[in-house]
Task: structure prediction
Amino acid sequence: MGQLLLVRHGQESLMRTNYDDLSDRGREQATALGECFADNGWEFDFVYSGPALRHRDTARRVGRAMEAAGRRWPEPMELPGLGEHDDLSLVRASVSSLGDDAEVVGLRREMLEVRDREERSLRFQRLFEAVMIRWLQGSFEPRGVETWPQFRARVLSCVEAMTSLCEPSTRILAFSSVGPAAVLLQRALGTDDVTTFRMAWKLRNSAITSFQFDGRGALSLEVFNALPHLRNPADWTPR
Result:
């Protein structure tokens, strides 16, 4: 069986001008992950990254730490299929498209009422999850934004391309986001859409989720949300 390690990117700069940038803590998380891989003798046959800056920068910092320790580091290959769904466009579209949805309107009002960045981030997450559930259920499909079935098919096609021609002992490392991780979890566990995302939303920044694959599209979950490189729980960031 091959092994696919999916790493969620380091902490981004949510509620800042360019949220796709890694925060200072996100950079530290990525470096710590690379050092952990190096210290434990981990090496990879292939490394892939989603297209977002936070994906590529996390991969780069992990690789820099690996190379500094003298470990082999394949050049990461960028794959659009590992990109996140367009979450910000979904939230923006909900302003007009879900204007008569009392729960969504109330959550948006609660978010706008606070100025503290941490509290606003927490309230944004509640709004985001409510919007996402409607997207998953197919009751909210704004024009120009991937539907949930389209997104799932795109990610699965990408993962199939990554794994189908691999040798049985191949070890793959991929950097991505919560959405693609949810797709892989669903394939491995057979859970329903909403349950799958409720699980994926628990993923911490820079966490490792490991799957075994057989080259025929089957995935089995080995490890979920592991943070062996972050010993201090204060560094376990959800967003």
User: Anything to note?
Assistant: The longest strand covers residues 219-226. The helical segments are 24-39, 53-68, 87-97, 102-112, 117-136, 148-163, 178-189, 193-200.
